[in-house]
């Protein structure tokens, strides 16, 4: 007597006497590869690299300001006035096309006055906040915090996320560490003002501006010019890292797209369209 063969079907709720992990030749008929290609152009990849280069240049520029203040190469008044002028220019560019400008200007002016008042009053407290911590530890903590800032920055992504908050918090914490090692409360207040402008306000302006590549190149050239006066070795390292993240990494990314192989099939989660 000939026994009837059992036909396998893709059904989780019926038992045909076959093992749970059994499949036949029809299982891979629905296999699809690379159905959602990530066709990133060279321009898009280099633009994303420019966003990373901009963040790196901003961090290095902030550290240069700290070195200038720490070595008494400039005065806190000059730093505060120069950064304030640049902030007003940036604020104008950010709000030039916004409606209800008068209402927004009054609210933003109140915020600025509150920050200036509380920042100046609390600067003497900041100066004594880390007296018991060694300078080497302060520098190590600041470097680590700026690395965290660079890693978790959103780099042009419009969505607000936890990583964005972590990036801002770590940059401000690193700025506080450096400011506590300056000569006077006025020096510390000036550096904290620059920190807020660089790490809190500047990203809002950059999100509204196009031509990220031009901005990145301009900042990199300016940073290189200022950094060469401090250390030629650090200047060379900065130029090398900038070229690597701005040009080399995006070109590698585009080249490696042809090696990517994503598979799709009946094992994927169901998607309701």
TrEMBL record:
Gene Ontology MF annotations: glycosyltransferase activity
Keyword field: Glycosyltransferase, GPI-anchor biosynthesis, Membrane, Transferase, Transmembrane, Transmembrane helix
Parts forming coiled coils: none
UniProt keyword Transferase present: yes
Topology in the lipid bilayer: Multi-pass membrane protein
A Pfam family matched in the record: GPI2
Cellular component aspect of the GO annotation: glycosylphosphatidylinositol-N-acetylglucosaminyltransferase (GPI-GnT) complex
Pathway(s) annotated for this protein in UniProt: Glycolipid biosynthesis; glycosylphosphatidylinositol-anchor biosynthesis
Domain of life, source organism: Eukaryota
Entry's Gene Ontology BP terms: GPI anchor biosynthetic process
Annotated compartments: Membrane
Keyword Hydrolase: no
Sequence intervals crossing the membrane: 45-69, 75-96, 108-126, 138-155, 186-206, 236-254
The family this protein is said to belong to: Belongs to the PIGC family.
Protein's recorded name: Phosphatidylinositol N-acetylglucosaminyltransferase subunit C
Name of the coding gene: LOC107271243
């Amino acid at each position: 007597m000939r026994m009837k063969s059992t036909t396998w079907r893709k059904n989780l709720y019926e038992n045909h006497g076959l093992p749970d992990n059994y499949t036949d030749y029809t299982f891979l008929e629905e296999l699809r590869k690379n159905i959602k290609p990530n066709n990133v152009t060279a321009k898009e990849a280099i633009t994303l690299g420019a966003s990373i280069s901009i963040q790196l240049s901003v961090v290095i520029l902030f550290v240069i300001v700290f070195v200038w203040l720490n070595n008494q190469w400039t005065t806190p008044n000059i730093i505060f006035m120069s950064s304030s002028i640049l902030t007003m220019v940036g604020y104008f560019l950010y709000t030039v096309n916004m409606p209800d400008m008068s209402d927004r200007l009054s609210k933003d002016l109140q915020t600025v006055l509150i920050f200036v008042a509380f920042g100046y009053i609390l600067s003497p407290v900041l100066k004594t906040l880390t007296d018991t911590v060694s300078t080497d530890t302060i520098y190590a903590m600041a470097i680590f915090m700026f690395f965290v800032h660079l890693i978790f920055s959103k780099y042009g992504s419009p969505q607000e996320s936890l990583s964005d908050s972590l990036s801002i918090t770590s940059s401000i914490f690193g700025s506080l560490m450096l400011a506590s090692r300056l000569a006077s409360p006025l020096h510390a207040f000036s550096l904290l003002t620059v920190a807020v402008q660089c790490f809190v306000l500047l990203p809002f302006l950059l999100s509204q501006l196009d031509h990220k590549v031009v901005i990145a190149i301009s900042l990199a050239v300016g940073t290189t010019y200022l950094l060469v006066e401090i250390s030629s070795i650090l200047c060379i390292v900065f130029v090398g890292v900038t070229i690597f993240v701005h040009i080399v990494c995006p070109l590698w990314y585009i080249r490696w797209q042809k090696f990517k192989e994503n598979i799709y099939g009946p094992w994927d989660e169901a998607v309701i369209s």
